[in-house]
Amino acid sequence: MPKLNIDGQDIEVPAGENLVLAARRIGVEVPVFCYHEKLSIAANCRMCLVEIEKMPKLQPACQTVATDNMIVKTSSPKVIEARAAVMEFLLVNHPLDCPICDKAGECMLQDNYMGHDGKSSRQQDTKTAKPRLEVLGPLVNYNAERCIMCTRCVRFMDEIPKNTQLGVFGRGDRNVIGVFDGKPLDDPYSLNVVELCPVGALGSLDFRFESRVWSLDKTNSVCDGCSKGCNTETHSKKEHVYRMIPRRNDSVNDTWMCDEGRLSYHAHEEQRAEEPLTDGKRASDATALSAALGVLANAVKEKGNGWGVFISPTLTNEGAFAWLSYVKANMAQAKVYFSGRADGVGDQLLRRADKNPNRAGIKAIAEALGIPVGTYTDGITAKPLRVVMLGTETPDDRISSIVNAAQASLVIGAHLTQAFKGAKVALLSGTVFESDGSFVNEDGRVQRVRPCHGVKFAGKSYADWAVMLSQGLDKAVGAKTFAWANTESVFADLANAVKGFSGMRLLGLGLHGKALGSGRATESPSHQQASSPVGA
Amino acid sequence: MDNVMCSQADKFLGMVPYDWTMIVIVPVAKILFIIAVIIGLYTPLATLVERKLSAAMQDRIGPNRAYIIKVGGKPLTIFGLFHTMADALKMFTKEWTTPKSADKFLFYLAPVIGLVPALLTFAVIPFGPPIQVCDRVVPLQIASINVGVLFIFAVGSMGVYSAALAGWASNNKMALLGALRASAQSISYEITFGLTLVGLMMVFHTVRLDSMVAQQVDLLHWGVFLQPLALVLFFTAAMAENKRIPFDLPEGESEIVGYFVEYSSMGFGLFMTTEFIEMSAIAFLTTALFFGGYTVPTWVATDHSFAMWNVASELWPAAFFAIQMAAFFFKVTVLWLFQFVVRWALPRFRYDQLMRLGWRIMLPLSLANIAVTAIAILAADGDAAKGTEYVMMTGLVMIGLFVLSLFYSRKPRQSGDSGHGHDHGHDEQQATVAAAHH
Amino acid sequence: MGKIIKVRAQDAEVGAYEKAYLPEITKGIGITLRHVVKNLFGGDEKYTRTVSYPEEKVEYPVRFRGAHRLTPREDGAPRCVACFMCSTACPARCINIVAEESDDPNIEKRPKVFEIDELKCIFCGMCVEACPEDAIRMDTGEHVKPFTNRADAVYGKVDLLSMLGRTEKNGEQPVYRGAHEHRARQAPQHSPEGTLPVQDEQPEDAH
Fold first, then answer.
1. Closest CA to A269 of A454, A414, A89, A473
2. Per-residue pLDDT tens for B26-61?
3. What is the CA radius of gyration of chain C?
4. Which residues does C123 contact at the CB level (< 8 Å), separation at least 6?
5. C12 exposed, middle or buried (CB, 10 Å; 0-12, 13-18, 19+)?
6. Best of B59, B74, B245, B341 to disrupt the C interface by mutation (most C CBs within 10 Å)?
7. Greater confidence, B97 or B390?
8. Rounded CA gap, B19 and B38, in Å?
């Protein structure tokens, strides 16, 4: 544990830590461009130069390991002058086209210029002309004029997906980042280089010219694209989501995210159902819908066999808990099966073959409630005659056709799928961008999903647990009623009922979530009043 | 021809007893004339003048757009006259809202109580010389009653009930505040209003307005020369009674809106009409009391007997009658316009200033005026001509002393005289300020 | 408890002359009457400066901020590069822009939709200040035309481009000062003597 002095403060840091991180411990931010905590160190931008006593020249903080008795100055006149000089060099050939640059607003070049340079340009000559729009791959474009050659992107491709698709070409002021002949940047993690890029050189073709970044509202949430549950920051404006970018969580996704997950927000706006349906038609008025619901409630009351429940692992824990409690109370004979999205491609890094975000959570809840959840296999398992389908995602059309053929069917979902349109009653729930709740990822980490700022529940949709209460489905059957006021109260009941969740609070999950079973038991009692008892 | 006309008239008048003619027909004709002049001419004109004249004073143009017909392709606007008509139309057609918790009866009664006394004032004011219709002398005064000026005081003080009742009946805090202010102000200034005329009564030995006017045929016997101080006090007090700027605290639209805040439509219109009628009343009264009424200066008409116009006589007396009527309404109009000028020239008083002016300046001055007038009359010892001269002299001396005392009683403070030092002789006020500590 | 603070009543410099009301009132009425007489009969010496608007019009000052317009490039396309600076600067949030890829690789970005809601606009001129391309100006000297429909108050790209500025109306060639011009000016700037331009702007020490 080396002890050193940074800007007059003595600190002790773990062995091997560099000076950027060491300075961060005392609240001093050393400006950087090429340095990234999760990548190897290149020390080529020279922005992080600091003065170290007994060293003749300024040293790059990112590459210098903290050692005993070091005396570091991060803001001496020499350092300040050096930083300004570095900034001036970086800006010599920078086109300063911030007005049309999508990075403007979150650009490190802008931030560091304001923080450490602030002078007018002395550049008299014409700036070097380079290609402005080079499409590197299906999702990434490259503007060579803006590039400061920090090589973050190159290092990322080499080190994280270990797929060397980018390289530095040319020398001097003619060098550019590029792809190799005939090999586009098509790695499934290619969009990470866009956030990595400290300037606007690498851009996302998906987000290109869509919006300026300062006008976007940012929400910390979780990707629902697969069972990995990468932490995300969702950027939305008014009622639209514009992009999803990864949020650092070292227990889950470090600072990365796959392209598939980033683009998954498109699917949520497509085929969005806006109104409840009865027999595939718009429920023109409240009476038509309540009549259909009445028929359904009578079918539930018969308690006959033949009920099948398809639960999609895209439901939040709260939704799954509410509906499984309902099934347990009212349809004890029902068989419960998983539906949900079909398996896809997975890999060792972040992508998982199971494209559903909450299978682990639903399994834990079903186990605690004593409901066996199986997998429906056509031909082997008996076809249910009456169906409740939670979540519209299906692996294939077989489940949809079962729903469409059933005598009584209730579908809860957000999208106009075949099952939704063919159901006797189809009610609306919100998408992951509209709902509050929690997911459990494949490693058993409970993580909070937050509704985006400004993105309201489309049409007449509700959170998946609240659909039941909104239509009074529990009261219509009458065996057991629920009185949750908000998502927290559902989660509080859930925490009481399911062992893995005990001691957790929805609002206590924080930015990085909590592992199943890690909740402290002392935290739970305060939220019990808000909830009604749930059958054991 | 004259005889024919008279005999025709006699024939017509002969059908009714003579007394009935003088008691009913002639007064009604005079009332109709006065109402026509006041309500038909001065009041509508007041709304126009209030807008156009104030515009001229404030370097604006004023209303000039409304028109009904176009003449030669250009709209006929006549100095914005149609705005006045539109105003009247608006007053009549707007919704009359009544507050839910108002005292309905008093709420409707209050504007009427204001209007009636204002109109009654004109009953005793002579607006022209007596005329002779055939063999009957008809004074151009609706009621020549013995109490004369006192009737005006009696009726005029009724006006305060209107404001007080309106404020009370509205059941609105602001209206009540306005009513309180109106009551206090009216009572304060009514005293000065009355006392200023005592001097005039002493000089003219009468309270009858027609005989007061008759005594002012000589220019130097006009009230303005006999009682100059009284004129200033009277006119000020009268304007304060009328609650117009600078005495419009009961309205004070920037602070409390006033006792008629809850009135809309013609309810408010009646208050406004009352105000304009009272303006005319003040002008009529001041003309009669201080500016010789319908008389023209004696060098125009050396022979007083000329003043009587017989309808059946020659042309000259008719012309002289016309001149007298014109003189009367000229004086009235000048005084009437003067009130508008005052209104747009002066800012509103603060309430303490208003009360100080009323009680500490105007009331003592009016009492002093009575005392000095009485002394002058006593000194004249019954000689009427001498008495008039004495009174006139004392009046001028009083004005002179008043003005001189204003100039020399206390010099304006010179702030630069004693370096940075303050004038220690001046009042120093102490205020205890309790600084609140928690 | 509270402290006792001595407050000296500071009267205005009012003497008995002013306190007597009458002379000052007379003076005030005199001023009022002077205005009346001059305004009614004064002819050219009128104090009134009112203009009967639709019939008479005053000439607006050159810097009057009128209705907005988009300035065109030489080919007639808007100079705007859809950078959103104006809509970001706009305190009334009345500018709606949707950007798209330009056909010209040197321009890169251009507005697909550029709308100004003149009902929301407060004519503060921030958008003009913010524009890096001199693409939006308020130099038309015109008012927003009357409309009977809210949708008519939203000026689109075509409406904004169709308006002319003062210079164009006077038949002169407009001078634009945007980033393009800046870049063009920047290129050959070596003065023969090699003096820095900054030195030319040194203030003289005359006094």
1. A414
2. 788 888 988 888 888 888 888 888 888 888 888 888
3. 28
4. C65, C138
5. exposed
6. B59
7. B97
8. 28
E strand or H helix at C64? none
Here the tokens at position B233 are 């006090």
pLDDT digits (tens, 9 = 90+) for A116-142: 988 888 888 888 888 888 999 999 999
Task: Report how far residue A444's alpha carbon sits from residue A359's, in angstroms, rounded to the nearest whole number.
Answer: 10
What are the backbone dihedrals phi and psi of residue A487, each rounded to the nearest 5 degrees, phi first? -60, -35
Instruction: Give dist(CA A468, CA A132) in Å, integer.
Output: 54
Q: How many residues are given for chain A?
A: 536
Could you give the 3-state DSSP secondary structure of residue C169?
helix
Are B413 and C48 within 8 A, CB to CB?
A: no
In terms of C-beta density within 10 A (0-12 exposed, 13-18 middle, 19 or more buried), how is residue A425 classed?
buried
**Tens digit of each residue's pLDDT (9 = 90 or more) over C158-173:** 999 999 988 888 888 8
What residues of chain B have any CB closer than 8 angstroms to a CB in chain C? 53, 56-61, 64, 232, 341-342, 344-346, 357, 406-407, 409-413, 415, 422, 426-437
Q: What is the pTM of this model?
A: 0.66
Helix H or strand E segment including A23? helix A19-25
**Residues whose CB falls within 8 Å of the CB of residue B236, separated by 6 or more in sequence, listed in order:** B192, B362
Other C-beta atoms closer than 10 Å to the C-beta of A20 total 24
The answer to whether residue A132 neighbours chain C at the CB level (below 8 Å) is yes
Please, which residues have CB within 8 angstroms of residue C46's CB and are 6 or more apart in sequence?
B59, C38, C39
pLDDT in tens, C86-106: 999 999 999 999 999 988 887
- Subunits next to C (3 or more Cβ pairs <8 Å) are A, B
Give φ, ψ of A34 to 5 degrees.
-85, -15
Residue-wise pLDDT for A217-267, tens only, equals 999 999 999 999 999 999 999 888 999 999 999 999 999 999 999 999 998
| Helical H segments across B246-362, by residue range | 265-290, 315-345, 351-356
Going by pLDDT thresholds of 50, 70 and 90, the confidence category of residue B382 is: low
Residue C160 burial (10 A CB sphere; 0-12, 13-18, 19+): buried
Task: Copy the structure tokens of residue B380.
Answer: 């004249």
CA angle at B386 for the pair B382 and B388, rounded to the nearest 5° = 95
- Contact check, Cβ <8 Å, C35/B57: yes
Angle of the B228-241 helix axis to the B265-290 helix axis, nearest 10:
170
Query: What length is written for chain C?
Result: 207
Determine the distance in angstroms separating the CA of C36 from the nearest CA of chain A, rounded to an integer.
58
C-beta separation of A6 from A18 below 8 A: no
Residue boundaries of the structural domains of chain B: 25-93, 100-366
For chain B, the residue count is 438
* The residue type at A324: L
Strands A71-73 and A3-6: parallel
Task: Answer whether C8 sits within 8 Å of B422, measured CB to CB.
Answer: yes
Q: Is C58 strand, coil or helix?
A: coil
C82: nearest CA partner in chain A? A100
Instruction: Answer whether B346 sits within 8 Å of C28, measured CB to CB.
Output: yes
A137 neighbors A190 (Cβ within 8 angstroms): yes
Bridging pattern class, strands C109-117 and C154-155? antiparallel
Q: What are phi and psi of A361, to 5 degrees?
A: -65, -45
- Cβ contacts of A134 within 8 Å, gap of 6 or more: A141, A142, A143, A144, A178
- Is residue A143 a contact partner of residue A104, using CB atoms and an 8 Å limit? no
pLDDT computed for residue B403 by the predictor: 66
Q: Determine the 3-state secondary structure of A151 from DSSP.
A: coil
Q: Could you read off the pLDDT of B283-324 as tens digits, one per residue?
A: 999 999 888 888 876 554 444 444 444 444 555 667 777 888
Test the B interface: residue of C24, C36, C47, C56 with most B CBs within 10 Å: C36
Can you say whether the dihedral through the CA atoms of A324, A330, A336, A339 is positive or negative? negative
